[in-house]
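Progress report, Aim 2. The chain analyzed during this reporting quarter is listed below.
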Amino acid sequence: MEPTASLSGVGTALITPFDRNGHIDFKALERVVAYITERRTDFIVVLGTTGESPTLSAAEKQDLCQAVVALNGGRLPLVLGVGGNDTAAVAARCAALPEGFDYVLSVAPYYNKPGQAGLFAHYQTVAAASPKPVIVYNIPSRTGVNVETETLLRLSNEVKGIAGVKEASGNLRQIDDLLARRPKGFAVLSGDDALTFPLLCLGGDGVISTSANFMPDVFKQMVEAVRQGRLEEARACHFKALPLIRLFFEEGNPVGIKAALHHIGLCENILRLPLVEASADLSRRIASAVRPA
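Predicted C-alpha cells for the chain:
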C-alpha cells in the first residue's frame, strides 16, 4: 500500500467547535479550517483527542468528516482518527473509511492493557482492513500501554500499510532509539507539542499538534528552519511557542486551545462533558497571551 500524500511537517489536530446548544458549529469549523490553512498547516487530523471524538455520535462523526473534506477541497492531506480498544470494531471502521482521507491515525488500545504481542496483532489487523496507510498513535499517559521501539520496528518492517507513528510517550531515549533504527519511509511525528523541536533535531519528520490550531505558522517556521540548518531560528520558534503550549495544556486538552480560539473569535468556548471550559484565571491568562496588543 502506497501513501497517497506526504506525511511530514505540521499536522493540526483539529478541534470540533460546538455552538451554544451543544451541536457541532459548522460555521466555526469553516473559520478554523480557513485559519489553519492560511497559516501553512501541512495536513489536518480530524477526530483525534483534540476533536473530542469520544463524545461524538456516529452521525456527528460522519457529518464532521464530510464537512472537513468539502472545506479542504483537496488542498491538504487529511488524516482520520480511528481508535478504540476492540480490534474488530476499529478494523471495521477503518474498512469503511470515508472518501477524501489519506491516512488513518489509530491510538493504541486503552484500558485492556495488551502486551507487545497484542499491540502488534492489533495493528496488523487494523492495517489489513484499512484502505489507507495507518499511523500508530503511542500515548501511554492516556492508554496505559507503551508501544515499544521493538514493536514499532516490527510493524514498520513486517506489516504492509503502517506509515509511521505519532510519538507522545515523552521518552526521548525511546524516540532517539526509534529514529536511529527506523526503516526508510517510516515517519516519526511528535505527539507532544513541547518536544517538537528536540524531535526535529534528532531527525523526526514533523508534529501532529494541538497548539497548531492557533499557531501553525510558528511550528511551520520551526520545521523549515531545522531542515535548513538554521537552528538558532528554530530554537527561537520553540521558545516563542513554549509559554503558550504550557497555557494550552495546563487544564487539559482541548480545554486551553478552545479558550484561545474563542478569544480570537474563531469559535465558542464550549466543550462536552466530562470536559469543562477553562477556569476563569486560566482563560484570562490565555486571553492576555493570544489577543493582539
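The longest strand covers residues 162-167. The two ends are 49 Å apart (CA to CA). These observations will guide the mutagenesis work planned for the next reporting period.
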